[in-house]
Amino acid sequence: MEMDTVIGLEIHAQLNTRTKLFCPCPTEFGAEPNTNICEVCTGQPGALPRMNGLALELAAKAGLALGSRVNERSLFSRKNYFYPDLPNGFQTSQLDPPVCEGGGLEITSDDGSPKRVRLNRIHMEDDAGKCVHDERRGITLVDLNRAGTPLIEIVTEPDISSAREAVEFLRKLHGLLVRLGVTRGRMEEGEFRCDVNISLKPKGSPVLGVRGEIKNLNSFRFVGQAIEYEIGRQSGIYAAGGRVLQETLHFDSQKGETRSLRSKEEAHDYRYFPQPDLPPVYISPDLVERLRLELPEGPEEAADRLLSLGLKDVQAQLLMERRGALEYFDSAVAAFPGTSGGTARTAALMEELFLPHCQKEGISPLESPFTPDLMAKLAGLHEDGTLGRRKVQELAEQLFSGGLDPVKVVRDRGLAQISDEGELGRMAREVVEAHPEEAAKYRSGQEKILSFLVGRLMKLSAGRAEPRRAGELLRAALSGDGDGGGEGN
Ligand SMILES: [Zn+2]
């Protein structure tokens, strides 16, 4: 039987604040265990929480950028459960009303048409601490540094139909929230992670199937793998006439498979009730208006703008997905000498060389010592023909990691491409004379031999010839038109 896949996502994003949600403890990552804690975030009796105003603004900002309605009044509730790294015995979260409701984000569906993934809600909550299992000593330790860290949870409607769509949605959402400054989005530190709800149903059926919930995925790749695995697992059960159980699953990234954590029978009853220690949260229309004015352009506007600048689809996508890439691109284009803007050159350099370099180094483009101003200079040297494609590729790593000024490097090392036609023409004739056999073969119709001669000419010019022009001049030299092209340029 043909089945439809139905996927909904719950995304946890750590809000970009310096202090926790209900106390002034720092949110920094990697501190000594149990040093960033106080009586509030360790759940001491009688300690009173106070809400971090910046966290509320960031949550509302996320909602505004995603087209959600920001509720003027929302409420914190206690979500009760026991876990050793949850000293309060409850998580402080929002049930009803949450800070934002509705909204959505557009992706490209598998059939290529645009598709809007609707959001159900965005609510605020605090994070739990962390259990550290010491296998060697056979004990478990608790680190509460993370307890009380502010999060938003973004819950989508079940509008996603494949692993690819889920990953595209997450990449877009991640890029947007990072550009907004809502989260720093460092996935390896757990600042952006997601739960996947997934079920199958007979093709076209309006009734949803029983779903599995895969918990806590913190890489786009794992999300894709986990969904593919789960589609296979569930369809295998249906094909064998079995019944899919509603359960909570863990994805084992080593083995590439999901396994059950608990079934519905054991599922929690959280017994939500309003948190009596916190008053309702109010956001004034004035504040919402101010936040709206602070919003950068939305993803759809940004995409339209980039495409109208003549960027390729894949380049626009990359600039929007990678943290800091769009800001870097805009600064580089603004700094480009002359009026042509250098947009195409800059986009190509970033796509092919710079962004892969940054990814390898694990840095955001804006953290690179190769600043947008230097990128503008490099694009300029490429655009005016001073540096050919091959030279740019050769120099890229050095320039990027050292933050070197390309103009200075070209001058100091005498790298400028030879644009003197006379000099290059002389070299072409020299190459032809030095290789009479190859020249004869070419003249007898073996045109492929030309690439060999181009190679010789590149070598003779120490890589400073533009390969296409080198080919033209060689052809001219071989046909006996010794003076070489007079087409200028
Ligand atoms: Zn604290």
Give an overview in words.
The chain is of the alpha+beta class and 489 residues long. It has three domains: 3-286, no CATH class; 297-402, no CATH class; 421-478, Arc Repressor Mutant, subunit A (Orthogonal Bundle). Helix content is 39%, strand content 19%. It is built from 15 helices and 17 strands. The strands form four sheets. Strands 1, 2, 6, 7, 8, 11, 12, 13, 14 and 15 form a ten-stranded mixed beta sheet that branches. Helix 1 (53-65) crosses helix 4 (285-294), helix 2 (163-180) packs antiparallel against helix 3 (220-239) and helix 7 crosses helix 8. The protein is elongated, with a radius of gyration of 29 Å. The chain starts with a strand and ends in an 11-residue tail after the last helix. It binds zinc ion. Zinc ion (ZN) binds next to loops. The site of zinc ion has 8 residues, from loops.
Helix tally equals: 15
Rg, rounded, reads 29 Å
Low-confidence stretches: 482-489
Question: Major sheet: size, sense and barrel closure?
Answer: 10 strands, mixed
Bound molecules: zinc ion
Q: In terms of structural class, how would the helical and strand content be classed?
A: alpha+beta
The domain count comes to 3
The quaternary organization reads as single chain
Question: Helix share of residues?
Answer: 25-40%
Q: Taking all residues together, what is the mean pLDDT?
A: 90
What's the total count of β strands? 17
